[in-house]
Amino acid sequence: MRNPLRNQSIWPVLAPALVAGAVAIALPGLSTLAVLATTAIVALFAVRPMFGWSLVVLSYPFIYLQLFIGREINIPYVDLFAMLTFVGVILRSVTKRLRLGHSSRFTLHSSLRLPGLLPFLLFIVVAAFSLTNVEHLALGVKYLLRPLTFFYLMFIVLPVVVVDTPRRLFTTFRLLFVVGIAAAAMGVWSLVFPPEPGVFRRAVPIAVFGTTPLGTNHNLIAEVLVSIIPIGIVLAAFAHERLRRWYVVGTAVLSLVTLLTFSRNGWLTLAVEGLVLLVAVARDRGMSWRRIATLAAPAIAIAVLAVGVFSMSTIARSSNINRIRLTEIALAQFQEHPFVGAGVGTFIEAVSRDRWYVGDFGQPQEAHGLVQKLLAETGALGLIAFLALLASIIGYIVRVYRMSAITEHWRLILLALLLSAAGSIVFQLFNTSYFVSKLWLPLGIALTAARLAERGIQLRREDAGAVS
Questions:
Q1: What is the spatial distance between Cα 353 and Cα 349, in angstroms, rounded to a whole number?
Q2: How far apart (Å, rounded) are the C-alpha atoms in residues 127 and 228?
Q3: Residue 166's closest CA among 462, 463, 450?
Q4: CA neighbor of 265 nearest in space, from 314, 205, 323
Q5: Are 218 and 203 in contact (CB under 8 A)?
């Protein structure tokens, strides 16, 4: 019988063990325990990178679940899992190359050809130039590394490297659906047992064992669910009949809870996702643009009317004033530094200097919109580069989706993931999660699926060429 461990390299485990042994001699007490635990986890993720990636997916929206080190360092667990998995993948790739020699391909080599790499690098260059306008250079450099460089490496490069088979892709889908059900359950619980007294009820995150892993704002439920609802459609389409019913019911619940958050961002995003779905299906069936516009007009009108009416309510009035003032502060920063902005990571500091805002709203907040944030901190050049990054990723997904050789199964998957990615982007046009996992993990998964589909097309073409 063949030993399944025969071809596994021992170096991903042995190398961290040697490092841990050296550290145990050099460092005493608690520091040694922390380093030993870290190296053990890295070794585990090096041998089983999908396990680390699964932890990333399960924790991706819960950015308020954080590890605190001392008084000044706090790391969201999703970022921690991503970093450890990324290090494990690098260790696995390097040791494999050392073991096999120059005949092996470096596992991370494919990431060098990722769509969006060039605009991302241009964005980082502009962000670096923006540091010429900051007062505290060290804080600016820190912000440049994390979150700006961090989000691309952890949530774009990492999934492309780890999720390298359709089976792993569908495992990721199922984990995302579990996350969506958990977020929706919080919303349902808050409707039955509202955390605050009052007649008006909406689905909001709840506290779990004294912590708020998803935050406290109703938008934080909606921004998760709008990205996962399209995933539920894929799972329902490919599931067996009995399980399909549960996926359909679960997806319907996710949609209903999104509506019950009374999040204007959520309503608009669902409308945009519905519009994209309508256009894609209609064009595949040969419908004219005029016919599509006729079909879409009622839904768009209803969404705009609902958002408009709710925006005029007393509940939304304070939020409107808050967003307007934050936009004014962002535009003032942009006018002072129109090309490269006032410097990355400086917006909250600018808000804290605004006495009118602090007096009315208290704690300073981030810009409620991706465009305002980029204009204020990176100027017009940074906004252009960042939009080019988003456009290159979405454009690549659309290009693969429209390939004539793609199978119907992959077409459905890519359409759903296109909805998920587009929904995440649209939501952040009015929200504050621009450089964290909640925006970039759905984009990374969509990009990963497109690369898998394109690779499948290439393999089929190679097989056809070999046969002929």
A1: 7
A2: 31
A3: 450
A4: 323
A5: yes
